[in-house]
Design brief:
By secondary structure, the chain is mainly alpha-helical. 47% of the residues lie in helices and 10% in strands. It contains 5 helices and 3 strands. A hairpin with a 5-residue loop joins β2 and β3. This is Putative dnaJ-like subfamily C member 24.
Amino acid sequence: MTLYDVLGVSQDASETEIRQQYQELARQYHPDKSAVEGAKEKFVQVTEAWHVLGDSQKRREYDDQLKREKLYQEFPVSEELFLEDLERDREEGVYLHHCRCGGHYTLAAQDARNSTEKEVVVACDNCSL
């Protein structure tokens, strides 16, 4: 469950939408105003979600974390490397790294230059190790 799920908003919700939803849920689950079982715990969850999603810097960091977690779930990660760890094949215009299965991880030099991401996931051309 993500912090967005806790507040019941979508990941692309505006700051205003997040604030409004937080205020509504905080009123609904405030321990002094709610007799609902588990209200205190829900209030704590809602407040923690607001502290992250209500702060633009913390929200960006959280979104980056969600993105990394999603990538790691979709692709098996057997190694984490720096670009300097890869061999450069200037003729082919690619960076290579040998996989333990005998295949290669291949990253086009153009993709490496144009990437706006700090991390890039590259799959082996021969396996799913």
